[in-house]
Automatic annotation (TrEMBL):
It comes from Ogataea philodendri. This is Amidohydrolase-related domain-containing protein. SUPFAM superfamilies: Metallo-dependent hydrolases. The keyword Zinc applies. Keywords: Hydrolase, Metal-binding, Zinc. Pfam families: Amidohydro_1 (PF01979). PANTHER family: GUANINE DEAMINASE. GO terms for biological process: guanine metabolic process. GO terms for cellular component: cytosol. One of its GO terms (molecular function) is zinc ion binding. Residues 92-478 form the Amidohydrolase-related domain. Its cofactor is Zn(2+). It comes from the Eukaryota.
Length: 482
């Protein structure tokens, strides 16, 4: 059966949008370990999906009258009001998954007793090769985009397979369903013979097909953008890596790659590059470390490597769930943050069993505690608020979109999730004697703020996709479960 990519697709995140005011509680982390709660906020969002004002405190007129004070020529003003729900409903920035393998989604939770290499051969490569079939690719990719959106992930940095047509299907699925996405065809010209590009020339040709398709689908890269994805240093020739680096500079396209996921991997790869002292140094020698490079895992990087990554202004995607599932190791995130590194979170599906960044955030907290048990230093522990920062604004910095995403501010996109802690069948139980008062939160009463912080902690450790009721990308509601 033949398969043809559609020529024209409309996107849920690019449809017409009236000027809209959102009224309710905002929760975000504008700084590391700082949770800011803004009750009774009114957020004006223009037809481009951009926040044009945030009003706080007492409302002295109607919401529409307040909007007209901003612009008296507004004729069509929509209002979304959740203020009557008090503390139990709030808007929080959308999650950003900085490292996820879309074709591996069918294998979520399947890893047995495998470590990285045996898992790749037994589970990963077979399912990725199966997606050469575009019908299978479309089935998988629609599900993974829908599932990540339903979990509040508004932006993903995706790895696809080596197949250009299937990778273009992933781009189309993200575009149509309204998810912001970086789409990366896995680049490997010297990998296992049954799973590799047809040499350097074949890899170049396939990569350009994906770049050209995305450029035609979304010429301004308003929603989807290609990302160059040399999978590992041992799976790409030096010629291929240097070509990818040249395209990154020439076309202003970001780069994503894996770095130091396991000790065995690092040892084996260094033997292939005797002229380099470190794994990060290998990438740097091929000009792959730049301001838009995302390095997944970084579990076993040295002081020298972290200094090099920071000098090149590259970023790190922390994948605690995957690193635990495959017993790869425990990344020292506090050490990275102490050195002002750019760090975000990645589910690393399907090394990570869950497509939920909320799950990843809780595991980031837990893994940091395991690090602290070894170092015997509480300083190494991450707080819930720090983990939420990595899931939102930290991730936005990793993908180079912190001026547009990750927190609530004038000039940024309305890109967020509506969380309901008291929804039917919620995994979180609320108790009146422990609940904060919304008026107390407005007055910044310390006890009420502490109680609300406790609820945020409960949500991070107990919440799931049932608590995510609406998801907004580019100002548009792309998921509405109510």
């Amino acid at each position: 059966m033949s398969f043809h990519l559609p020529k024209d697709i409309s996107s849920r995140a690019l449809c017409d949008l009236p000027f809209t005011v959102y009224h309710g509680t905002l929760v975000h982390t504008p700084e590391l370990d700082v949770l800011e709660t803004i009750p009774n906020a009114r957020v004006g969002v223009d037809p481009t999906g951009t926040i044009v004002y945030i009003k706080k405190g007492r409302l002295d007129c109607s919401i529409k009258e307040e909007a007209l004070k901003y612009d008296n020529e507004l004729a069509n003003i929509a209002v979304v009001d959740i203020s009557s729900s008090g503390f139990s409903k709030f808007f929080i920035p959308g999650f950003i998954d900085t490292h996820i393998h879309a074709p591996q989604y069918p294998n979520c939770g399947v890893f047995g007793n495998s470590t990285l290499f045996s898992w790749l051969i037994k589970y990963t490569y077979p399912v990725e090769m199966a997606l050469e079939d575009p019908h299978k690719a479309q089935s998988v990719y629609k599900k993974v985009v829908k599932k990540t959106l339903a979990n509040g992930t508004t932006c993903c940095a995706y790895y696809a397979t080596i197949h250009s047509q299937s990778t273009n299907i992933l781009a189309d699925c993200a575009y149509e369903l309204g998810q912001r996405a970086f789409i990366g065809r896995s680049c490997m010209d010297c990998a296992r013979k049954e799973y590799t590009d047809e040499g350097f020339e074949g890899g170049v040709k396939s990569t350009m097909k994906v770049i050209e398709h995305i450029s035609k689908r979304d010429p301004g890269y308003d929603l989807i953008k290609p990302i160059l994805s040399p999978r590992n240093a041992n799976k790409c020739t030096r010629e291929y890596m240097k070509w990818l680096a040249e395209q990154s500079e020439k076309l202003s396209i970001p780069i994503q790659a894996h770095l130091s996921e396991t000790e065995d991997e690092v040892e084996g790869i260094l033997q292939m590059f005797p002229e380099c002292k470190t794994y990060a140094g290998i990438y740097d020698s091929q000009n792959l470390l730049n301001e838009s490079t995302i390095l997944g895992h970084c579990v076993f990087i040295s002081d020298e490597e972290l200094a090099l990554i920071n000098e090149r202004k590259s970023s790190i995607s922390h994948c605690p769930t995957s690193n635990s599932c495959l017993t790869s190791g425990e990344a020292r995130v506090r050490w990275m943050l102490d050195h002002n590194s750019k760090v975000g979170l990645g589910t690393d599906v399907s090394g990570g069993f869950s497509p939920s960044i909320l799950t990843t955030a809780r595991h980031a907290v837990l893994v940091s505690r395991h690090v602290a048990m070894k170092t015997r230093s509480d300083h190494d522990k991450l707080s819930v608020n720090e983990s939420l920062y990595l899931a939102t604004l930290g991730g936005a910095k990793v993908i180079g979109e912190e001026e547009k995403l990750g927190s609530f501010a004038v000039g940024k996109k309305w890109e967020c999730q509506l969380i309901d802690l008291d929804v039917e069948d919620s995994p979180i139980d609320l108790f009146d004697f422990l609940n904060p008062s919304i008026s107390g939160i407005m007055q910044k009463d310390e006890e009420d703020l502490r109680k609300f912080q406790d609820l945020i902690d409960k949500w991070v450790f107990n919440g799931d996709d049932r608590n995510v009721r609406k998801v907004f990308v580019n100002g548009r509601c792309v998921i509405d479960k109510d």
